[in-house]
Structure formats: structure tokens, C-alpha cells
Amino acid sequence: MLKDPKTKRAARLLLSVFAYLYHVADIPYYRQEDAYLYWQYEMIADWIEQDDEAELDSRKEELKVAQWCGEKMEQKIFNRKNLDVFAERIKAFIPTNDFEQECLNVAKGMFALYTDYPATTVFQNAKYVQDEEEQEDEVIAMRKYISFIADVKGWLYETVAESVNNEFNECGTTEEPTILKKFNGTAITDCSLEFENRLFPLIDDLCYLLNND
Q1: Mean model confidence pLDDT for the chain
Q2: Cβ contact 125:177 at 8 Å
Q3: What average pLDDT score do residues 118-142 get?
Q4: For FRET with 210, which of 70, 74, 133, 167 sits at 20 to 30 Å CA-CA?
Q5: What's CA 33's distance to the chain center, in Å?
Q6: CA-to-CA distance for 17 and 129, rounded, in angstroms?
Q7: Rounded mean pLDDT of 167-172?
Q8: What pairs with residue 139 in β-bridges?
């Protein structure tokens, strides 16, 4: 999108969206070593390197592209200037088609969140109800199923998805945004899941936008 003159303006707008998700909402990035998906990709890379079959050449190339693109894009969204000019980009952006209008809608929604919750992460209310016999490694943590990813098509994605789903099938509990309020005579906390209820639909819209246009 950044290289195509027809989509460059929309791409720059989305860079601000990605910078917000990366820096403020704290969505894990798949090229960072502390991200769950980083090790999924590394595991697949090790498996490919140990196999000498010729037909794996195309898969090696797909993995190489995912790694290279991931590092290049991280360099771009790591630049906090994309956050500094977020409002300016929205104000100056005049959509000329449905795709650009959808990009603008997502950007406005994300910027409103950034304005209302300037330091809130997606994991602020991450909790799970622990069973007495349940171990921590049996819980699907939010940091495992919320993440930037290289692509959502092709052999590499299908392999990653299969690996992740196989692991998740062994778990019994999923960590989710949760608010606990105690009615025991003490003051009831005034917290809510408004941030999450606004963020996740916007992420869904963004994913659909990128994968279907």
C-alpha cells in the first residue's frame, strides 16, 4: 500500500493506527522475542532447516518474506512520529472511495480511543477464573491469541494456525478481559470494559479491511 500511489495516503493513515496498537494498546508483535508468535515462527523455521526436501524451497522463501516484511514494518510503526501526526493525518484525509472511507472510520475510532484512554493497554483487565486443579500452562493467555501476524493466507499461516490451535486444544481456560466487583459493603469500583468493547470491534474492522480489499 505504501508503494502504490493509489493507496499511499490510506497506508500512512493506517501507520498511525498501527503505531497506536503497537505503542499504546500494547499488541504483541510477531518479530519480538517476547511475543508468543515469534517462537511459533522460529519453530517452523527450525523444522524447515532440518528438512532437505526440495519442495521446501518455496516455504523457506515464504518464511523469509514474512521475517523481512515484519522487520521493515516494525521499523515504520516503531517511529512515534506516526502517533504525533495521528490527528493531522485524520484531519487532512479526504476519502475518494469506499476503501478510503473505511480506513478513515477505523482511524477515527482508534484515535478516539487514544484520546480517551491515552495509556490503556488491551491487557489491563486480563484475568481468568482459576480452577483449584488447573495449572498456569493450561490457560490460553491473551498475549497468545492477540497479536500482530505476518499474513493470514498461504502455507505459513496455515501451519502457524494449526500449531497454535493444537496447543490451545490442550488448554481448559481462556484468559479474557474481566471486571470483578465485590458487593461486601466496601465502595464499588467504577471500572468497566468500555475500552475493550470499543477496541475489539475496531480491530475486527481493521482486519477485514486489510484482508478483503
Answers
A1: 90
A2: yes
A3: 77
A4: 167
A5: 15
A6: 32
A7: 90
A8: 173
Instruction: Tell the residue number behind the cell numbers 526436501, with chain if given.
Output: 53
Number of domains making up the chain: 1
Q: How confident is the model at residue 132 (pLDDT cuts 50, 70, 90)?
A: very low
Residue 1 is assigned to a structural domain of this protein = no
pLDDT tens, position by position, 62-108:
999 999 999 999 999 999 999 999 999 999 999 999 999 999 999 99
Inside any domain, residue 156: yes
Residue 140 to residues 33, 170, 172, 177: CA-CA distances in angstroms?
A: 19, 9, 8, 13
Please state the length of the chain: 213
Per-residue DSSP letter, 140: E
Contacting residues for 196 by C-beta, under 8 A, at least 6 apart: 122, 125, 177
Reading the block at residue 48, the C-alpha cell is: 524447515
pTM (predicted TM-score) = 0.89
